[in-house]
Amino acid sequence: MKTTMTTAEFDRRFDEGKDLGDAVDWSNAQRPGQRKSRVYLTLPSLAVKKPDRQARQRGIPKSSLVKRPSSG
């Protein structure tokens, strides 16, 4: 359940390492002032084999690899 709190309270909880999941509306989360852009690419099939394999191993769509920060 999302709760309302002051910026100071949010900062204090963050600094203490507390869970802030109840204070954030993740449904429209994005960095302020940044627009989203959709990009379509045409690549040779050899260039997409590794992402295809990684997506299959993770059980996610290939497009999600582009959307997610790398994990390593």
Strand content: under 5%
Helix percent band: 40-55%
Low-pLDDT runs of 5+ residues are: none
End-to-end CA span: 32 Å
Q: Tally the beta strands.
A: 0
Structural class: mainly alpha
Radius of gyration of CA atoms, rounded to a whole number: 18 Å
Assembly state: single chain
Brief summary:
This protein is mostly helical. Helix content is 40%, strand content 0%. The two termini are 32 Å apart.
What does this structure look like?
There is one protein chain. With 72 residues, the chain is an all-alpha fold. The chain has a domain at 40-67. The protein has 3 helices and no strands. The chain has helices at residues 7-15, 45-58, 62-67. The mean pLDDT is 79.
What's the layout of helices and strands?
Blueprint lengths: L6 H9 L29 H14 L3 H6 L5
Task: Throw out a few tags for this protein.
single chain, 72 residues, mainly alpha
